[in-house]
Amino acid sequence: MAYFPDLSRPFPSRKVFAVGWLDECHPFLTAAPRKWMIEKLWTHCYYLFNHAGGFHECTLTACPGPFKKSKIVDFGRKRPSVRKIRERYDSLRAELQSGPFTRLSEGLKGQLLASLDHNLKIALRGYSRMVVGVHPDSGQRIYLGHAEIWIFGKHGRVYKAPNMLYHYVTVHNYQPPEEKTKHQRFVRAT
Q1: Which residues pair with 141 in a beta bridge?
Q2: DSSP for 161-174, written as a single string
Q3: What are the pLDDT digits (tens) for 53-68?
Q4: Do the Cβ atoms of 7 and 18 come closer than 8 Å?
Q5: Do the bridges between strand 16-18 and strand 158-162 make them parallel or antiparallel, or are there none, so unpaired?
Q6: Residue 22 clears pLDDT 70, i.e. is over it
Q7: pLDDT digits (tens, 9 = 90+) for 153-190
Q8: Cα separation values, 96 from 77, 93, 116, 142, 151, Å
Q9: pLDDT (tens digit, 9 = 90+) per residue, 69-115?
Q10: Range of 62's domain?
Q11: In terms of domains, do 18 and 58 share one?
Q12: 145 and 66 fall within a common domain
């Protein structure tokens, strides 16, 4: 999954801000989540946007889960040997560092290489760890890491976050940023 700093605007619209696009290489604020925030995030996870073609794993260090193991189907019927997997990824890595990819920014190349390394770990492991969100009261479960949630703020602002935000808040104690108003005061966006 891509990393975007909180409240940055990597999306086409000037009123759309990134929240919760985390990565293990970038620190973030933490705080114990409040019950109302957990409830609102749970509700947002039912109204998803931009479904992805697959699942993203949590890349934060020493993530305790919960996970569901899912077999990798990219290999077709027969899983290739470790040597073949490493050869394929070495070839892809070399392609990213040469040819038309040399025109990409160093930051983007770094993100692509990090993603490639992460995918290599998954391929060598042989299964993906789909993140599961668990409701604190009912125990109900939902799969995370495959879509976005949109939180509508004041003055027409939209805050786009991966639905992994629920996991980041409840498991890793990620503290989402507060919304700035016109007068630079801070208020909660959700």
Answers
A1: 134
A2: EETTHHHHHHHH-B
A3: 667 888 888 888 888 7
A4: yes
A5: parallel
A6: yes
A7: 888 899 999 999 999 999 999 999 987 655 444 445 44
A8: 28, 5, 10, 35, 35
A9: 776 655 566 777 888 888 888 888 888 878 777 787 887 787 778 77
A10: 1-72+132-190
A11: yes
A12: yes
Question: How is residue 3 written in tokens?
Answer: 């990393």
Buried b (16+ CB within 10 A) or exposed e, 110-146: ebbeeeeeebbeebeeeebbbbebbeeeeeeebebbb
d(CA 109, CA 105): 6
DSSP 8-state symbol, 178: P
Beta strands at 148-152 and 158-162: parallel, antiparallel or unpaired: antiparallel
Tokens 């995030």, located at residue: 41
Tokens at 104, concatenated = 């990409």
Q: What CA–CA distance (Å, rounded) separates 68 from 143?
A: 9
Do 100 and 156 lie in one domain? The reply is no
**SS3 track for 28-80:** CCECCCCHHHHHHHHHHCCCCECCCCCCCCCCCCCCCCCEEEEECCCCCCCCC
